[in-house]
Design brief:
Shape: globular
Radius of gyration: 19 Å
Number of helices: 8
Number of strands: 14
CATH class: Alpha Beta
CATH superfamily: Ribonuclease Z/Hydroxyacylglutathione hydrolase-like
Strand content: 15-25%
Strand order of the largest sheet: 1-2-3-4-5-6-7-8
CATH topology: Metallo-beta-lactamase, Chain A
């Protein structure tokens, strides 16, 4: 049975910075969507990426922790769902709207891909932006940074409580992890599949417009037994949607390759691209985002990739 509830939660200053709290207007509202008896998606206006909550026999596994200041509301929402303690927090990638709530979690193991850990230790500006992201870890003496990392694959727990972590290569960033709950045939993809829209390729943090089609296809072809995908910033998608998402990114890459071969500039390639009819159900593309992605791909191609 699926249900949605909204919990309005006020957060105090606590372990997060005054600036981060001041940036949040009004109460932080957590919307809880129940996907299975023991699996939930937590959303919130202004909260950042989608958070997954997997209630196991003895504890709770959380995937992603939203923007600065949202860790405490997430914990309060979890407390309304179960008495089990949070034991594990997995980050799909390093962006501040997916990791900043980490600092509110105590006595948990923080898990991420090894590249994501390196990115989180630096928190450098994202591609297309000059200002650095909020770095809550600078104020927490590093609390909330990953304590356990993996390179290609790792499993946590066993039986119906098992969580499988995969890495198939660069995409949105250089460390995008795929988090599967095999007993529930569900997976959290983070922003490597943020929704049916033009992706955000963060080359500054290892993202790749050349690699992302293959990365997505490898995930689709190698992770078995999944029906439902929790996306980074949208509603749930199907396994067939992931296959289509890989094709979309492959088609976009080919347009850039062709434009470059014809001697077109980044601006000309971007201006000449429009959403193909096959993907008319995708969100309308943002022109600046399209040009940014074209630039990322052209830079990669000119670098010999």
């Amino acid at each position: 049975m699926k249900r949605s509830i909204v919990l309005a939660l006020l957060v105090g200053v606590g372990a997060v910075s005054l600036a981060a709290v001041a940036a949040q207007d009004g109460p932080m509202e957590i919307e809880v969507e129940q996907l299975e008896d023991n699996l939930y998606v937590l959303r919130g206006q202004g909260g950042g990426g989608n958070t997954a909550v997997f209630v196991t026999t003895d504890g709770v596994v959380v995937v992603d922790s939203k923007n600065p200041g949202w860790g405490a509301p997430i914990l309060e929402a979890i407390g309304e769902l179960t008495d089990n303690p949070v034991t594990t927090l997995v980050n799909t990638h390093s962006h501040h709207d997916h990791v900043s709530g980490n600092v509110a979690f105590a006595d948990v193991q923080f898990v991420a891909h090894e590249t994501t850990k390196a990115n989180m230790e630096v928190m450098r500006p994202y591609t297309g932006r000059t200002e650095p992201p909020v770095n809550v870890f600078a104020d927490s003496d590093g609390h909330g940074l990953p304590t356990i990392t993996f390179s290609d694959r790792m499993s946590l727990g066993s039986g119906d409580d098992r969580v499988d972590l995969y890495y198939f290569g660069r995409g949105h960033t250089g460390g995008d992890a795929w988090i599967a709950f095999p007993a529930l045939r569900t997976l959290h993809a983070g922003d490597v599949f943020l929704g049916q829209r033009v992706p955000f390729l963060d080359a500054e943090n290892g993202g790749s417009g050349v690699d992302i089609p293959d990365t997505l296809q490898k995930a689709h072809d190698n992770i078995e037994g999944i029906d439902t995908i929790i996306t980074g910033h949208s509603s749930q998608m199907t396994w067939a949607d992931l296959n289509e998402w890989a094709a979309f990114n492959r088609d976009f890459l080919q347009v850039v390759r062709d434009g470059r071969a014809e001697g077109k500039s980044v601006e000309e390639i971007a201006a000449g691209w429009s959403l193909p009819e096959a993907y008319s159900h995708y969100d309308a593309p943002n022109a600046a985002g399209v040009q940014r992605n074209v630039q990322v791909i052209v830079d990669e191609l000119e670098g010999g990739q």
